[in-house]
Amino acid sequence: MQSRGAGPSPPRAFLPRPAPVAACLQASQLGWAGLDGENIGNCPFCQRLFMVLWLKGVKFNVTTVDMTRKPEELKDLAPGTNPPFLLFNKELKTDFIKIEEFLEQTLGPPMYPHLSPKYKESFDVGSDIFAKFSAYIKNPRKEANINFEKALLREFQRLDVYLNTPLPEEIDQDSVEDITVSKRKFLDGDHLTLADCNLLPKLHIIKIAAKKYRDFEIPADMTGVWRYLNNAYACDEFSHTCPADEEIEHTYASVARKMT
Q1: pLDDT in tens, 21-52
Q2: What DSSP string describes 135-177?
Q3: Are 188 and 182 in contact (CB under 8 A)?
Q4: pTM listed for this prediction
Q5: Average pLDDT for residues 113-142, to the nearest whole number?
Q6: How far is CA 253 from CA 27, 60, 257, in A?
Q7: Mean pLDDT over all residues of the chain?
Q8: Domains detected in the chain
């Protein structure tokens, strides 16, 4: 069991993790746990909501539950439904997007910070990268691999360009120096936002699984992407909610198609 953040407890919520076990947060969240039945398993949606709660400064606990034998509490609460879901004032929310929206609307200033990004592009820029990765990792045809890899690299290049392009607030109209490369830490500035909570868990999965099963690495010359990742790994809200590499590798062992 782990505690995160501080402040009053939020509504009761349940989150998933795609390995046979799940985790219960004192929000109270249930999600799929890892191979050992205790640690965090691999689920970007689960990590996304963990990050939101941590960034909000909400106190929460994680308890693992074996999802191969669903607890009676889950069966009674949401029969036929898998996490993530959230229960608040007897109202059940089963869509993780709606859960995130609920947390952003309910846990707001002055007690909790807003996490919505300032720029729409911060949400849009990485929207296709995970789909391109999924197609790449599932492709079994060796002759087609280069095209799938190029498609993934194009999405990384798009992300890199965005991260290296200065945001409007970085440009001082009165300065004699032209800022040509952004120095910001994250997608929308120097603070993590909902856009980062969405994209970073996916980038972590890509980084681990693509290396393991396709010997793919994010090019070193994509300085914007690497600056972004290095800054993210330095943040507890991200690094401490990441599943172990072995969890990701196990998840994709049956997904990554052997090329012939």
Answers
A1: 333 333 444 455 455 555 677 889 888 988 99
A2: HHHH---GGGHHHHHHHHHHHHHHHHHHHHSPPGGG--TT-SS
A3: no
A4: 0.84
A5: 97
A6: 32, 31, 8
A7: 83
A8: 2-106 (3.40.30.10), 120-253 (1.20.1050.10)
Beta bridge partners, 40, equal 33
- Cis bond upstream, residue 10 (ω within 30): no
How far is CA 118 from its chain centroid? 19
Please classify residue 96 by burial: count the beta carbons closer than 10 Å to its beta carbon, then call 0-12 exposed, 13-18 middle and 19+ buried.
buried
Selection from 78, 74, 66 nearest residue 23 by Cα: 66
Residue 63's DSSP bridge partners are 24
Kindly state the tokens that stand for 116.
Answer: 């919505």
Q: How many CA atoms lie within 13 A of 201 on its CB side?
A: 24
Token pair 């799940």: residue: 22
